[in-house]
Amino acid sequence: MDDQRRVKSRLQRSGLMRRPAAIRALVRRRQIRFTSGNRIELFDNGRDGLAAMLAAIRGATRQIHLETYILRADSTGSEFVEALSEKAAAGLDVSLIYDALGSRGLDRDFLSGFVGAGGRVVRFNPFRRWFPTFTPRRRDHRKLLIIDGRVGFVGGLNIGDEYAATVDGVPSWRDEHLRLEGPAVRDLEALFLESWFRAGGPGLPWQDLLSKEPEPVGDTRCAVLADGPLFRRRRMRDVLISGLADAENRVLLVSPYFSPGRRVLDALEQASERGIRVDLLLAGRTDHPLFRRATRAILPRLLARGVRVFEDHNRMMHAKVAVFDDSVSIVGTSNLDRQSFEYSFEVNVILEGPGFPERVRQRFVRDLEHATPISAESLAHRGPLTKLVDGVAALGLWMF
After folding, report:
1. Distances (CA, A) of 180 to 88, 144, 186, 219, 314
2. Which of 44, 87, 93, 141 is the catalytic position?
3. Concatenated DSSP letters of 266-330
4. Which of 138, 204, 352, 371 has the fewest C-beta atoms lying within 10 Å of its C-beta?
5. 148 catalytic, yes or no?
6. How far is it, in rounded angstroms, from Cα 254 to Cα 332?
7. In whole angstroms, how far apart are CA 11 and each of 32, 39, 240?
């Protein structure tokens, strides 16, 4: 009880802007914690974000913990594995988790040099001949890198050539990835350890790894929001719904895949009908055409209630971002779809203002200016067969 009073007292003294109700409830139950004194750097493309991650790996002195949904056996993946292997051979504690479905087709021989150098590696939920470890849809969609327990990376970037691609020297993959220093890094470390042990990884000295919180180094307040099927709470979905209900002026949501389910759609409509400016930025170029078809069947009901929808056809829009009234922003790994909300292990960082959420929103305002607005009229002009196919796709994603 004393701890709860101290947490509440610290939050009241901070003079923070009002949080969505779901975030307040999580804090009250101490399921997430906000920490001050964090320094955060934003990367809005794969080339720069992956380069920063590689630089951090090469500068590590004690330990490297990497968790990724996709690991490719291409030039980018090879560069990462080579850097990890060099550090493992130098005696550092280097541990790697990758998802078996996201990294399907990855030959285990690709990591033999890393293992031979002393690195540890586990696959999450591999497919077996008769019985999977978990249900097949249960995936590790987190993207985490923790260096020396001091520097953390989290966001949308996987490890592969497509994420680092450029066209005429300009990055062609639009994403949002964070580099963190400060107390919040210990929370990222705890999530990595949770994933490691869930995937059956060998013992790590978790008590030592979590015994000391990094010193404050900046002025940003944030909280690490873990989500996944074992939590049985659909935390990210509930935070989004609450943020839409509590918004007073405007909301920006960015996602490459959009099939969020009835409750989120209802919350979007209700926010817009209350006079909130709701902007939805989606991927115009996509690696999953089925999602785009399903989205086309969903959008007319949102457009009819004033939600503004845009598609980015200039680059692959892969960012997962939400901004509420420039007072709260969320950056992480959750897509606005049922897979992320119900089946995947995800991680998102809630960032509080004033100042930082506005910075996040302004980065996407530039994208909105160059994106293609989607109108109800343009969707109404789809042919009967196209509408039927789109509707079947939406129904299939809802049922699957």
Report:
1. 23, 11, 10, 12, 29
2. 141
3. HHHHHHHHTT-EEEEEEESS-S-HHHHHHHHHHHHHHHTTT-EEEEE-SSEE---EEEETTTEEE
4. 204
5. yes
6. 11
7. 13, 19, 21
All CATH 3.30.870.10 domain ranges in the chain, comma separated: 35-218, 235-399
Cα first-last separation, the chain: 43
Query: What is the tens place of the pLDDT at every residue in 328-370?
Result: 999 999 999 989 999 999 999 999 876 889 999 999 999 999 9
Distance CA 344, CA 367 (A): 28
Domain 235-399 carries which CATH code? 3.30.870.10
Residue 266 known to be catalytic: no
Residue with tokens 């285990």: 108
Identity of the residue numbered 23: I
The highest-level CATH class for domain 35-218 is alpha beta
Per the annotation, the verdict on 143 as an active-site residue is yes
In the set 65, 87, 177, 320, the catalytic residue is: 320
The model carries a pTM of: 0.90
44, 65, 140, 143: the catalytic one is 143
Q: Has 325 been annotated as catalytic?
A: yes
What is the model's pLDDT at position 396? 59
The catalytic residue among 93, 187, 325, 337 is 325
